[in-house]
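Narrative progress, year one. The postdoctoral researcher (J.K.) led the effort to move from monomer predictions toward full complexes, under supervision of the PI. The following entry was the first complex the group processed end to end, covering 728 residues in total.
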Amino acid sequence: MKITGARAVIKALEDNNIKYIYGYPGGAVTPLYDELLNTDIEHILVREEQSAAHAASGHSRTSDTVGVCLATSGPGATNLVTGIATAFMDSVPLIAITGQVSTSMVGTDAFQEVDITGITLPIVKHSYLVKDASEIPQIFANAFHIANTGRKGPVLIDIPKDIQLTSFEYVEPTKPKLMGYNPNYYPNIKQVARIKKILEKSKKPLLLIGGGAVYSKCFKELEELFEKVNAPILTTLMGKSAINNNLENYFGMLGLHGTAASNYAINQCDLILSLGARFDDRATMLTDNFAKNATIVHVDIDPAELGKNITTHYPVVSDIKNFLDEFNPIIEKLDYSNWINDIKKLDEKYPMKYNKENINPPMVIDRLCNLTKGEAYICTEVGQHQMFAAQFYKFSKPDRFVTSGGLGTMGYGLPAAIGVAKANPDATVINICGDGSLQMNFAEIATALEQNLPIKLFLFNNSSLNLVRQLQYFGSNKRYSGIEFTCNPDFCKLVKSYPNTEAYRIDDISQIDDVINKALNNGKFTLVEVNTQTTEIVYPVASARLGVKKLDYFDGEEILY
Amino acid sequence: MEHTISVIVENKAGVLTRVSGLFSRRGYNIKSLAVGETDVPGISRMTIVVNGDEKTIEQVEKQLYKLIDVIKVIHLTDEEFVERELVLIKLNVSKSTRTEILQVVDIFRSKVIDMNVNSFVIEATGTTSKISALEKALQPYGIQEIVRTGMIALSRGAKKSKGVSIK
């Protein structure tokens, strides 16, 4: 059977169970767009290519299929770069397809030509430039395999226009066999037994859960671990929705804006059992002062993470679920009540709190959590609102937190929410945003409306880049530079200018519940705007100089461990 | 400390860029890099000399393994190995210096592979220090051009380096 390169691409997507593709057309991908008319795969037209990558990322993170985005050559391809880097930093499986100028033109600085495989080299798990149409089936089979196994990540496939048009005799791809790619999914059994003994000897252990646990889909196994090992549980930002945040032993997020209790626990513990956390600098702060007295057991699917940021005493290369499958059956019940009580006391002394007098983001997020029972999909942009969401939205169901943790990409939340909503049509999908981030990609409101997605935007508007303001407050002696927006639109009017939308403004505490309920139940794309103060600060804040040993707590109080 | 690493890779477009790019963007300094095909078609061997402490080298190896086209990374400094570099030196020659230069060439067991009235091209192989010593010895006569291949290395003995099984 002879088929064209473009047909082969679509067939590969069909064979990989792809139902949606997020993209933006252009000259170098017209054959692919033509072929999209002959398939059931639905194309979602975004307003800018970056959003195609973010939407595919949101889709990928909250479904069982790999997200796919499509852009033309040159500027279309370069607009994908931020989205690809975001997926790379957060280990999100993604297939990014770009068109390329025809092979005879490659290297001539042709119109809309750019070396996108070269540009994206440091931010992809792997990439291909297709030079022969007959390679397409095997390249796609390999690409899906690479993107969605081991430590997951984005794969870019650059396809010249003439290759898309070339016909060739189709041959089914073989099962991917890559000489240099053999990820290890299973732990060394002897090492697992060793860790059991170390845990039994420990007096103050803690369980640190990271994003790797989310991707490993080991919610049940983690629950079993927590039932057996009655030790404190902490998460990283990315690990927040790996577990039920209402667990009694869960003390919140650690690190820069972590809870006082979790940072205390890190300072005091004698053992960290880290499952899928990569000891990012926002979690550890200064590594010199991080968990100085602790033995560190680090379980991660990526061998390069072991010992990269901090010295690991017991490294284990494994998928988290597979590790727990071996570990849970061999451990007896272990109880660390005294140690937990110690942390609880500190948690009671220094709880997470917010001002109850005036309306503020934590207050609204707290109510939002309550009224959605912690079950909504929460996407965020990047800024203070992101940290407040991480601190105050307590996820009761797994895999619900979609945020740009690694790259910290403003403009991520809205397009990601589109992907989440497409992947989970009956779910409540909320994007928590600030006015800075929302303005980066807010043209995507139109995409959401075209797709009939009743996403809820919770906008905390302070007409400034308030997380930067906070950095300048602490780090630049309150000299504020370049953070003020003096010409923000009326966001409610802006959203209302699109058809079939709702927009509400909350001005008073007494309106919060009512507006949230209206927003959640109106079945429409909705903006809820809350005007907040620029004086808002995300507390606690770990010290830039001393790391998690010192926290600026609320009301100017300092905690030294 | 200086470390010599052999990297066995699939000979595909862009693989050299992927490997060298990895070094530069992570701040590892490549001292020398030489690439050539192995006895197995489609498989190349890179010999990379890099400076760094144990921790850096461990990261270098792990990061190299993350590249899909990298099949095997062998840290040769962990075992007995032989290393060689090839150099070609174009040198000014005159009637009065010709004999002296030939003596130097002989002492270093190198060869003259091209000559005319005013110049020699000298070929030499050896360790980095030998090549550097030869270069130093010939400097006074006036070196016109010089080209070095970078280090290539193999483990000693009949056994293949641990884990290298490509065929």
